[in-house]
Amino acid sequence: MKKIVILGSTGSIGRNALSAVKKLGPGYQVLGLAANSNLEGLLAQARRFHPRYVSVFDYTASVRVKGLLPRGVKLLDAGVEGLSEMASLKDADIVLNAVTGAVGFAPLVAAIRASKHIALANKEPMVMAGPALMKEAARWQAKLIPVDSEPSAIFQCLAGVKDGNYNAAVSKIFLTASGGPFYARKSGLSNVTVKEALNHPRWNMGPKITVDSATLMNKGLEAIEISSLFAVPLDKIQVLIHPQSVMHSGVEFCDGSVLAQLSWPDMRLPIQYALTWPERRCSLVPPLDFFKLSRLDFAKPDFKKFPCLELAFHAAKKGGGYPAVLNAANETAVEKFLKGMVRFTDIAEIVGKTLSLHHENKPDAITLAEAVEIDGWARQKAADIAANIKRGKKCLHP
After folding, report:
1. Within-domain flag for 131
2. Does 16 lie in the same domain as 124?
3. HSE (CB half, 13 Å, CA atoms) of 196?
4. Cα–Cα distance between 146 and 102 in angstroms, integer?
5. 394 phi and psi, to 5 degrees?
6. Residues 230, 130: Cα–Cα separation, whole Å
7. What is the CA angle 185-187-193, rounded to 5?
8. Torsion of CA 317, 206, 378, 55, to 10 degrees
9. Is residue 107, in this structure, part of any structural domain at all?
């Protein structure tokens, strides 16, 4: 019996994970569920899956849920403390970290230090301090299995590499991107509305990651994550625009062979694989029908049109705390955009200006504590920059 904890259970990843758990049958049991503030969704999940533990991140919502939970369900603390306690439960075999943003940093550290099998859908902590987190994982013998479709595809393609020496075996990693809703758009992006940015052509995701996909920042964040997960230098990672989202990524090995993972764009497949690894089980995803595929297109990314991608690679090459600054500034800018406080094109401006304010002569990997400190500094700087932009421009509202 595998006991599973899901952080972010009411989000799209969490809901798909519960669907996969139901399909997997009696060998998998939901031990704990954590949500932000969606009490209706969380209570429905608790009644259906009968977890032993529940946590609500939002303090007000956590107070409201008391007395509403089914009998036998224990309510843990609110906030990061509750998430971290949930992530390190002694009885948990698998922890799915599907929260959004840097808020998942402390729970990830807690799960690593509890030596858990971690299904990781929360890339932002890996962007903040990937090398330090991988060092912790090795120390505590925790296993990180990527959940996002592209890192999962790369993980699957690398499965046969002896002793995990990926850098020696790999000559190139092809990281695919759908291009989001604006890649083929001819006109400028300055007047993009929130509604347009959230209309992703292929994937149904949360607001933050959907906007990241629209700016292509998501591919930059994934490139940084992948570089740390597999100890492969950034210059071996090539982003490919692939609008059909059928090839989820691929690896070119030193002998010239290329392995790629293909399937219909459905997150239930990589989620389930992260839960069942190293085994494979039948899933709810229909098999790929090659006779129904009319074409598979690939193109180079347009760095000029999507400057967030270039900023991500710039921060990654600078190293040290620059990726943590990038992540914090982007989270802040995206939040402001979703609230209608800045324009879509202001996201890159806010990130770029925040990066320019960070001065560091330490290209080496930063510590976990330094990552948290830099994150807080960058958020404040990005918020100040966004406020100045708002005073200088008329912004669109959702």
Report:
1. yes
2. yes
3. 15
4. 16
5. -85, 120
6. 10
7. 80
8. -120
9. yes
Give the total number of structural domains in the chain. Answer: 3
pLDDT band for 393, please (50, 70, 90 cuts): low
Q: Say yes or no: 51 and 14 in one domain.
A: yes
Residue 158 domain boundaries? 153-263
Distance CA 100, CA 76 (A): 20
Continuous H helices in 143-295: 149-157, 166-169, 194-197, 207-215, 217-229, 268-276
Q: Give the CA diameter of the chain.
A: 61
| 216 & 344 share domain | no
pLDDT for residue 179 is more than 50: yes
Taking only the tens place, the pLDDT of each residue in 96-150 is: 999 999 999 999 999 999 999 999 999 999 999 999 999 999 999 999 999 999 9
pLDDT in tens, 190-210: 889 999 899 887 777 889 999
Q: CB burial class (10 A; 0-12, 13-18, 19+) of residue 266? A: middle
The residue out of 147, 166, 194 marking a domain boundary is 147
Question: Given 263, 286, 319, which residue is the final one in a domain?
Answer: 263
Q: Say whether both 248 and 339 belong to one domain.
A: no
Q: Provide CB contacts within 8 A for 164, sequence distance 6+.
A: none
Residue 395: predicted pLDDT:
46
| 392 has pLDDT over 70 | no
> Same domain, yes or no, for 119 and 12?
yes
Q: 45-71 burial string, b = 16+ CB within 10 Å, else e?
A: bbeebebbbbbbbbeebbeebeeebee
Mean pLDDT of all residues belonging to the chain: 94
Lowest mean pLDDT: which of 86-100, 137-151, 167-181, 381-395? Answer: 381-395
**pLDDT at residue 398 is higher than 60:** no
Span 41-56, average pLDDT: 97
In a domain, 278, yes or no: no
Query: Is residue 251 a contact partner of residue 173, using CB atoms and an 8 Å limit?
Result: yes
Could you tell me if 189 and 304 are in contact, meaning their C-beta atoms sit under 8 angstroms apart? no
Q: Which residues pair with 146 in a beta bridge?
A: 120
In a domain, 293, yes or no: no
Least confident of 63-72, 88-97, 109-118, 231-240: 63-72
